[in-house]
Amino acid sequence: DWLLHQTGGGAWPYEGIVPGLVNFVFRDGAPNESSPGYNSLWMNHFHLVAQLLERRGIDLWAELPKLKLLYSMPIRLGMPGGFTPNIGDTGSVNSSGIVGVNPTLHYEAYQRYRDPLLFSQRPPETSDNMSAYGLAMLRRGTGSRGMGLSLYYGTAGGHGHWDQLNIELFAKGRRILPDLGYPEYADAYHKKRFGWTSHTVSHNTVLVDESRQRTKEGGRLQVFASSPAVQYVDVRAEEAYARTIDRYQRAVAMIDVSDEDAYVVDVFRVKGGRRHDYSIHGPDGTFSVEDLELG
Questions:
Q1: What is the model's pTM?
Q2: Residues in a beta bridge with 269
Q3: Residue 263 pLDDT exceeds 70
Q4: Which of 26, 77, 177, 213 is the Cys-Cys partner for 132 at CB 3.0 to 4.6 Å?
């Protein structure tokens, strides 16, 4: 009983299996780590615990419906071309593959739930919004001919960054607007981690008054819509710069122009503060300009 139902004993890692799954995993199946990589570890660990308890006659798969959502979570995060958004401490500029998908584990989960998503292990082809986790995913097409855009607005957990309203763009089989992902240094006190990789300025968002965002509180979805030719999301997150700004809102539309191509319209509205820096980062490689003088 202690293993299953212990609660209120202090730090959250010491919660029992049932309150841990109920209270620390969002309703759309994502745990509270922010990072897809660290979140997927919860799936692996809960799977192992479920296997062990089954030997004692306890069927967590049948008794805890949220466990199924935990298995689905990494697949739902997949973007066209075979990518997972680099939210928080996950991935790198050049990383590829769907983080957390384990063919053996997911097939075992399929045998329990008979959910086709767990059998195919292929991400959805349509746009999706995980409102509790705080991630909107605009999608069109599949594979290297597909295109996707993610917008993160969730409450950043222990492995999250200062990255409210950060976007990533995936197209032509590449990360076009990547997040830097996991810091080069896992040292919690390294100056580059807090001065660059986890800082707001290294993400595809807006920096106010040359300072990182003040809180890691989640934003509020305003609109999420999908049609055959247009995918659209609009989110506000004034909490990111609490007591500094009156508006911090991003609206993004992905609009088809052909079966293979689309373009993105990004409108970021900020009111308050003295200076606004619109930060955008491309993939690694050689940078050059023509007929342009950089100041």
A1: 0.92
A2: 249
A3: yes
A4: 26
